[in-house]
Structure formats: structure tokens, C-alpha cells
Amino acid sequence: MKNFHYNVPTEIFFGKGAIANLSHIGRYGKRVLLVYGKDSIKKMGLYDKVVRILEQLDMDFFELSGVDPNPRIESVRQGSVLCKKHGVDVVLAVGGGSVIDCAKVIAAATVYEGDAWELVLDSSKIVDALPVVAILTLAATGSEMNGSAVITNVETREKIGTYSTLLKPKFSIMDPEHTFTVSRAMTAAGVADIMSHTFENYFTPVKGAYVQARICESLLKTCIHYGPIALDEPTNYEARANLMWAGTLAINGICSLGQQTGWSVHPLQHQLGAYYDITHGVGLAILTPPWMRYVLSDETVGKFVEYGVNVWGLDANGDPFDIANRAIDQTEAFFLSLGLPMTLSEVGIDSRYLEEMAKNCERRTLQGFVPLTYRDSMAIYKAVL
Amino acid sequence: MKNFHYNVPTEIFFGKGAIANLSHIGRYGKRVLLVYGKDSIKKMGLYDKVVRILEQLDMDFFELSGVDPNPRIESVRQGSVLCKKHGVDVVLAVGGGSVIDCAKVIAAATVYEGDAWELVLDSSKIVDALPVVAILTLAATGSEMNGSAVITNVETREKIGTYSTLLKPKFSIMDPEHTFTVSRAMTAAGVADIMSHTFENYFTPVKGAYVQARICESLLKTCIHYGPIALDEPTNYEARANLMWAGTLAINGICSLGQQTGWSVHPLQHQLGAYYDITHGVGLAILTPPWMRYVLSDETVGKFVEYGVNVWGLDANGDPFDIANRAIDQTEAFFLSLGLPMTLSEVGIDSRYLEEMAKNCERRTLQGFVPLTYRDSMAIYKAVL
Fold first, then answer.
1. CA–CA separation, B358 vs B268, rounded Å?
2. pLDDT tens digits along A308-337
3. Chain B: residue nearest A16 by CA?
4. H or E element: which one contains B210?
5. Chain A closest-CA separation from residue B195 CA (Å)
6. CA B385 to CA A138: how far, in whole Å?
């Protein structure tokens, strides 16, 4: 097990009616920037509830709406201009990971002299930030309880993650009922995202982080159990609740600290996101099985056997490569059963930018479970063309 | 899944050499009360390291040593007198759960006008506390990352837990090497304590907290895997590290929130602790199998099957009661294999106070997995006399 520093001060108010706890936002000042995406929070009545609570608290609020999935640096710049102009004290994100990520970088950019994109390119430049509060409406990215934010620069075709402990939300409100209206496709993509975060932590060259590995398996089992239920019964509270909390735990440090390594599938997918603006979880689902098959080797087969036996309940007595391949096949079959595409062509990606994307991956060198070079990235992309 | 509020701001510095992070204590002031037990922290050289860092920080420190296992209210009173007298800013606990629990209540008692025991009897009276910092030397109670403290009043024969979010350590230093010198018997008792915390969370009448249940199983598997290794190889870093972190996670909210229920075996054991001053984990180990057998019924058998299949790897195809009983037998056999006593007479407890203890249990009504009355408590005690 590696040394680690666990520092997650974010408070979580979880469950039905948790929105009442939004009143705690009053601790952080009187002027709020309300950040959200499209119309969905209005359709589900959440917008009105938020506004009512802010009004009851006699808070002034300003709005940044229309934040895109794969949130753009333009939205961040726009938000920070609003914050500076109105002397905003606290940034309130109402939405999924994209909205929360955008709100986080707005919070940092507001108190930064230079351009917001610098904070994405170099996280060490984040030395201060407004407080962030989140109301989560999608089980997926885990942004509600960590310091990460991924921002896209369409102009430069870059989708890059930044991080600061200062970006961790002060508190997050997680009501599973707020995810009842999430579409079938987005629910499936969210499940793939949660599983991918867990895989990035689980498939590690670090030895001896046994408890973390077992917890990763817990989250994977939760996704496998409740993913299909949430698709079939979108208002099944237990399914939505378990997926929502699993999404948080997958990437708040509980799974990674002590066995942390570089990530592999996320950087490969960030290239797809930057070039094609596809749904993040969909890209991860497409790339996961070919990545698994590509890195399977004499060195790594043991970990895949562990995965197959502990997560998929495969018989431990058998040829290790057979068990490993069956585990990978089951992973792919599971994503397929959720209705997720399994090839790049299904999401409109052809070979045009493959070399460029693979080169970009190599520039940041993927030192993960198995280090990946340009050649490796190309091979993985091509396997699912 | 029940609604929950997760709020654990304690920072953890985990791993070899983590003691260097004690320097962060400077954030909380200049005057420290150093709380510890007997000589062990001096023998292992930890005391000298702590003193060196406090001196480098130019901090004044005062000492309360000799804190007992099952820490006494007298120690708390003594500590708070020292804090008031010397204008202490921060309480530093160096030891296991007893020392940390004692330090927590000292921190609250220092800023309380009345007698410290009132804070144990009525946690709502804890409205302020000095900051607490912990250096953990025993994997067991999880006190390093929660707001609980259990204090014994020998005079009134009471061992009672109190709780406040204000008692959560600001940060805790967890170096598995600090547990290398823990004796075989105390290591075993610690494992039983961690497993018991997990059981208290796992055996719950609350439905649908699937992810929490799987995480509980992760911790149980970790104890079962590494407990024997730590006994055989006391300096096995991975064994000590996994047990240490499992001990924290067993009772910091990750296992309980969303499925929280009243506890059963701990209140039964607190009576033993108050009347006989036995080692906490030993009492828990003795009482766990008879409690399991006692509450096994048509209503609860499903949970025991889940436990047997998921933790002990028992074949799910079979008579449920057979699986359940085998799971309980394996639990007992595991504790025995760690060298733990399995009867009360082995730890010098006879029938003398049984009725009194069972009555005390009932006074606080055990509304746990299965509610327990006086009769039930008596039956459980008698089963292991």
C-alpha cells in the first residue's frame, strides 16, 4: 500500500428531501452564482425549489445557464465575469458533473488575475477559489465530492482535467429522486463512467492495497446489480440511490488512495471528447474492453482473474487467461446490455484524427496500469473502429 | 437506503514516515496537551519523535500520561484541569482508541463549565471543544476519524459513549509501523473490534443499502485475510496497513450511513467493560457468536446467508439455516484461531452481576438488528458463561 493523504471535507446531504439543506449555503455569503445546464432542472421543478430557498435566505443570485456536457472554457470565462461583476460570494452548481466542473473552475477563475484556461493547463496556479456548493442530478462523475474538473477548449481541441483541494464543494446535496428523469441513455453512460473510475483505480501496479481493491469490487457489483434496474425502472429509489452514492465513492479517494496510479482509459477518451464532443461515459464504455484486452499479459493476468472471480463470480479454478478473457467478455456484454455503443463508428468517429489523438495521448505519457505509447493508443482505438 | 448526512472533515496522513506531518499541528496554536497511555510510545521511540517536532515548532507542551484502556472520567477531569491551567490550544492524543477518546472529552471538558461526566451522559452539552489531533498506534476503535468517545466511570459502574461532530480530530497520523509492536493479544482484540463495528453496521433492518453492505463485506474480508498474518508476522507492513485503514473505515460513516441502526453487541460489552474492565475487543469477540445465534430467525436468516456467501464464500445453494449456522460457526472459529477467549469465565466473569448488567442494557433499550430485552441480554450472556 502506498502512503496517502485523505482530505475530503465536503459534507454530503443524501436522500429524499435533502434539498432543504441548501439553506446551509447562507454560511458562505449573500450573493450566489447559480450555474446549470439546459432546461431539465426547470422541467423537474428543481430550479423553482432552489430559487425559493435562496429567496427565503434573502440572497441575491445571478445565473449562468446553458453549460454544455463537456463544459467549455467559454462558459467558465462567462461565469467568472458574472462573479466579478456582481461580487458573488459562492458558486452553486445544479446539475451533473459538467455543471459542477464548470462551477469549480469559475470559482477559481473569479479570484485569478489571468485567463481561466491557465488554471486548467496548470493546476498549481489555483491558489484560491470561491466556495462551491453542488446539487447533483446525475450519478456519474463524482465531481460532487472531489477537487477535479475537466474542461474542454474547442478551439485548441483539448479536454483537460485540473485539480485542487480548494475546488472541493463545501457541501453537496444528493437526492436520488433528482435522477429519476435521467434518460435511459444517460443513465447507462453514467454507470459506465462510475465503473470506469473504479477500473482506473482497481487496475493498478501497486501491490497490497487489499481493502481498497475489495471496495472497488463493491462499487462494481453495485453498478452491475443496479444499472439494469435503473434502466428498467427509472423511479426505483434504491437503484438510483445506490448508483448515486457509488458514483461518489468511486472517485472521492476511498478507492484510489494507497493504490493510486496514472489513468489509462480516461486520457484516451478525453481525446475523443475533445475532437468529437461525444458523451463521456459512452466513450469510456467503448474503450474499456479493448483496453483490457490490449493490456492483458502474463504480468497482468492475475489482476484480471481477481476481477473475474470477485466481481463476476467466475470459478477460480481454471486457466487464468480463460478466466481473464471471460471477465472482459462479460464487461463488454454488460455494457452492451445497457444499450451502450461498442464501436467508434456508432458514435460517428472514423479514422481521420486517430493518429493526432494517439499522439496527443503520448505527449502526456500514459503511465497507468500498463504504460501506453502512441502505438498502443493507436492499437486500442483501431480495435473498436 | 435511509437519508444520511456525511460530514467527516478529519484529514488522514497515512503511511511510513507520516509523523512528519505532525508539523501541521502548528495551525491550531502554540500550547499542546500531549495525552498518552503507558510506556509503549516511549519504548518505540515515538514519544521522542513527537517531542522533537513540537520543539522544532517552538510549541509549549504539557503531559497527561497513564490513560488506561477503558479510559476513566478521572483522567478526563485531570486533563481538562491541565488544559485550563496552562491555556492549552490543542489536544494531541498519541495512542490507541482509549487515549484518543480520553483526549476528545478533555477537549470538550476544557471549554465546559460543569463536570466532564455530564458531557458523557448528555452529548448535547458538547457545544464547543478544543481541536484534537491524533497519532494512532493501534488498529481497532476508529476513533481517529469520528466524533465518538467511550468513557468509564468506575464509581457508578458505567461505560458510556458520547458523540459530537466537534470531537472529530482535525487530522490523524496513521503509520502502520507504529503498530508493529502491538502484542499478539491486542492485535487479535483489535481485529475483533474492527469486525464488530462492521457487524453492527452490516446486520441492520434497513433495506436497500446495497453499496454499504458490500463495503462492510470488504472490511470483513480484509480482517479475515490479514488478521492471522499480522499475528504471525507482526512487522508485515501490508497486514498492519490494511487492518489500520479497515479499522478507520469500519466506523467513520462509510459503512453505516444509509443503513444506520442501533447497536447490539457493543452495549452488551460496555456492561462487561464497566463491571470488569476487560479488553473491549475481547468482550466483543466473546459476545458476537452467541448474539448471532440468538438473533438468527426466519426474519433474519437471509442476512446471515448473505454474510456466509459473500464473506465466507459458502455455497449459496443449500438450506438457509445451514448456511447461516455455518457462517456463525466460522466466525467463532476465526476468533478462536486468533487466540481470543470464547467464554466469559476465561476472562474472570461469573454470574454475579449478570442480572444487573442485563437490566442496565434494557434501561437503554437495544433497538438494533433485532431489539433485545432484559431476557434476551441474559440469554446471550448465559450462553457464553
1. 8
2. 999 999 999 999 999 999 999 999 999 999
3. B3
4. helix B210-232
5. 13
6. 53
Measured distance CA(A57)–CA(A25) in Å, rounded: 9
- Following CA atoms A312, A14, A44, A63 in sequence, which dihedral angle do they give, to the nearest 10 degrees? -120
- Residue B61 to residues A265, A324, B68, Cα–Cα distance (Å): 51, 57, 21
CB nearest B9 (choices: A9, A222, A246): A9
Walk me through the domains of chain A, giving residue ranges and CATH numbers: 11-178 (3.40.50.1970), 183-383 (1.20.1090.10)
Overall pTM surpassing 0.90 (yes/no): yes
The ipTM, to two decimals, is: 0.96
Cα radius of gyration (chain A): 20
Residue A366 vs residue B74, higher pLDDT: B74
CA gap A225, A314 in Å, rounded: 16
- A7 near B CB under 8 A: yes
Is pLDDT at A106 greater than 70 in this prediction? yes
Closest to B163 in 3D by CA, of B111, B196, B118, B124: B124
Q: Which residue has the cell 463544459?
A: A71
Q: Do A8 and B7 touch (CB under 8 A)?
A: no
For an interface test with B, give the residue of A214, A240, A244, A257 to mutate (most B CBs within 10 A): A214
End-to-end Cα, chain B, rounded Å: 37
Backbone angles phi and psi of B340, in degrees to 5: -80, 140
Q: Is the dihedral of CA A276, A277, A279, A281 positive or negative?
A: positive
From chain B, the residues in CB contact with A225 under 8 A are 210
Question: Taking a contact as any Cβ pair under 8 Å apart, which residues of chain A between 196 and 255 contact chain B?
Answer: 207-212, 214-215, 217-219, 221-222, 225-226, 237-238, 241-242, 245-246, 249, 254
Residue A125: C-alpha distances to residues A108, A112, A362 (Å): 9, 8, 24
Alpha helix locations (H) across chain A? Answer: 40-43, 46-56, 73-86, 97-109, 116-121, 184-202, 210-232, 237-249, 265-276, 280-295, 301-312, 320-337, 354-363, 374-383
Lowest model confidence (mean pLDDT) among A211-220, A265-274, B97-106 = A265-274
How far apart CA B244 and CA B359 sit, in angstroms, is: 35
pLDDT of residue A364: 66
Is the Cβ pair A246, B211 closer than 8 Å?
A: yes
Per DSSP, the three-state class of B6 is strand
Q: Which residue of B has its CA nearest to A7?
A: B11
Residues of A in contact with B9 (CB under 8 A): 9
| Residue with the three cell numbers 452492451 | A336
The nearest alpha carbon in chain A to B2 belongs to A15
Chain B interface includes A276 (CB < 8 A): no
Grid cell at residue A203 = 487496475
Nearest to B242 among A1, A222, A238 (CB): A1
CA B140-B142-B148 angle, to 5 degrees, is 125
* Contact indicator for A368, A275 with CB cutoff of 8 Å: no
Q: Which of B101, B78, B301 lies closest to B203 in space, CA to CA?
A: B301
Helix (H, G, I), strand (E, B) or coil at B134: strand
Report whether B68 contacts B75 (CB < 8 A). yes
CA–CA gap between residue A147 and residue A140 (Å, rounded): 15
What burial class does residue B380 get, using C-beta atoms within 10 Å of its C-beta: 0-12 exposed, 13-18 middle, 19+ buried?
buried
- Residues of chain B with C-beta less than 8 angstroms from the C-beta of A226: 210
A24 Cβ under 8 Å from any chain B Cβ? no
